[in-house]
Amino acid sequence: MAYLLIGEAAMVVHFLFLVFMAVGGFLAWRRPRLIGAHLAVAAWGVFSVTTGAECPLTVVEDWGRRNAGERGLAPGGFIDHYIEGAVYPEEYADLARLAVAVLVAVSWTGFLLLARRRRARTRHGHGGPDTEGPVHHLP
Question: What is the pTM of this model?
Answer without folding.
Answer: 0.81
